[in-house]
Amino acid sequence: MSNLAVNSNLLETLSVLILLSSFVLMANKRINSYIKTFRIQSFLIALAAGIMGLRSLMSEGRWDFLVVCLLIMILKVLYIPNMLNKTYKNVSYKVEKDFILNIPILVLLCCGLVVFSYFTLSGVDGISQDVLNMQLVNSVSVIWIGLLFMISRKKAIGQIIGFLVIENGLYITAMYSTQGMPFIVDLGIFIDLLTFVLIMGVMTFRINEKFDSIDTDQLNNLKG
Amino acid sequence: MNSIVYLLIQLLVILLVAPFVNGLIKKVKALSQKRKGASVLQMYFDLYKLVKKKPVVSNISSWIFHVTPYIVFATALAAALLVPVSTKILPPQIPGDFIMVVSILALGRFFLMIAALDTASTFGGMGSSREAMISALIEPSILISMFTVALISRSTSLPQIMETVQKVGLPLAHPVYIMVGLALLIIILAETCRIPVDDPATHLELTMVHEAMILEYSGRHLALLEYGAAVKQLVFMTLFVNILIPQDQMIGFMGLGALILSLLIYLLKVILLALAMGIIEVNTVKLKLFSIPNLAALSFILAFLGVLQFLILGGKHV
């Protein structure tokens, strides 16, 4: 019993740390620190999946969650950040101001988003008060913060990271609320993600080739 | 009787350990630069040397310049008396809580700022305006992070809070306390003039904050100001280690042996924190002045997330 309590406490702490890492991401200024923070966030998610996997292995003998943990490690902690780093090196441009509002305001907005998701979730009928715990609120807040991150950054790589954070948020929401999805769903999500990142990497490269910049504001020049 | 013993132990521990912590952080920095560095006890010798010297006071300065070192030192000591180093010896009632600690320290800081303006040197004005900005940004997050802990223990008094924390088990793995702890870490770095905010080792006019304010002081006045700063640093570190790494529940027995053991563990925790602070200082760069609001916003957010997690949990099992 006490072992279980410590376990769930650890998962709660991890969910707070994942939320915190998205705040840190919002406070970052440079593209390589976005990538670094994304790597840390994915590592925390892999850790949470690992703890859940161990628990389901102990109680039900399911091992597929540990495979998911391994997949997250390979895909989100190693492969995608490395690929983004490579793209970033290819599109060398001057480092300039990348965000539309200043950082304290953005971070305070994130704070508002957490409060917002708390109140929206407590208004949903299907969720009973027992399920509405902080893990759910934290994971939904990560989705909102990812959205805000995506619209607050001008450069393409920042927007890709924003999308990946939204995906991370969705993933942990599913993970924390179901305590382990079917394996086939997980695989589907990962393959989707991989395709997205591959396509976006190529796209960013092409945008840079055509316009000498990956500032997406300049795409407006295409309008006649 | 009990409160006299408490006061004596509190004063002795804080006064004796404070300069040592400073020396330890300097030693870590020196070792990281492949220097041998000064001895960890260097600050004691410095203070002794400064106390023997006569202060030189500019003749256009007013009484504020003379009283400030005493006020700064006295406020630091008063704050030190309110933050217990060990819960094994507690008087039945300590008047004052953490709001009092924050406001006492603010009083000392206020006098330091106007004393820096008093001699009308250009550096003094610069230093005190920067200090005013930093403290205005950091103080909300101190209060909010401490209020979180106070909400959990249903009391604002620090001894009460430290008693409650003993029951948590491992606060560093607890979702609320870890937020408070990270916020306090940023607060410690900002309040004690450490590197991301201010560089204690420099006298370069563009970067100094605390050094700019005490530039005009010499002799025993300077000794008091530096000692006061060291005591203030140890007060914040005590707050951090005693809330985040409580140890007294491990000692099953009471009495003198338990007290000595808990003081030894306290000392070990402070040394570990000092080493960690030294390592952080080595690995970070000083922020430019206008990036400090970002750091302050982050520490405010950490404290705020702590409150929020507490509210979402509804006060259950915390």
In whole angstroms, how far apart are the ends of chain B? Answer: 34 Å
Shape of chain A: globular
Largest interface: A-B, 26 and 21 residues
Q: Based on helices, strands and strand pairing, what is the structural class of chain B?
A: mainly alpha
Q: Count the helices of chain A. How many? A: 7
User: What summary fits the major beta sheet of chain A?
Assistant: none
Secondary-structure element pattern of chain A, one letter each: HHHHHHH
Beta fraction of chain B: under 5%
The number of distinct β-strands of chain B equals: 0
Number of separate domains of chain B: 1
List the helices and strands and how they pair.
The complex is a heterodimer of chains A (224) and B (318).
Chain A: H1 2-27, H2 31-59, H3 64-90, H4 103-123, H5 134-152, H6 156-178, H7 183-211
Helix pairs in contact in A: 1-2, 1-5, 2-3, 2-6, 3-7, 4-5, 5-6, 6-7
Chain B: H1 2-32, H2 42-52, H3 63-82, H4 98-118, H5 122-153, H6 158-165, H7 175-191, H8 210-213, H9 219-244, H10 256-283, H11 292-313
Features:
heterodimer; A: 224 residues; mainly alpha; B: 318 residues; 11 helices
Describe it:
The complex is a heterodimer of chains A (224) and B (318). Chain A has one domain (2-219). Chain A contains 7 helices and no strands. Chain A has helices at residues 2-27, 31-59, 64-90, 103-123, 134-152, 156-178, 183-211. Chain A starts with a helix and ends in a 13-residue tail after the last helix. The model of chain A has no long low-confidence stretch (mean pLDDT 82). Chain B has one domain (2-313). The longest helix of chain B is centred in the middle third of the chain and has 32 residues, at 122-153. The two termini of chain B are 34 Å apart. The interface between A and B is medium-sized, with 26 and 21 residues.
Task: Write a brief caption for the model.
Chain A has 224 residues and is an all-alpha fold. Chain A has seven helices and no strands.
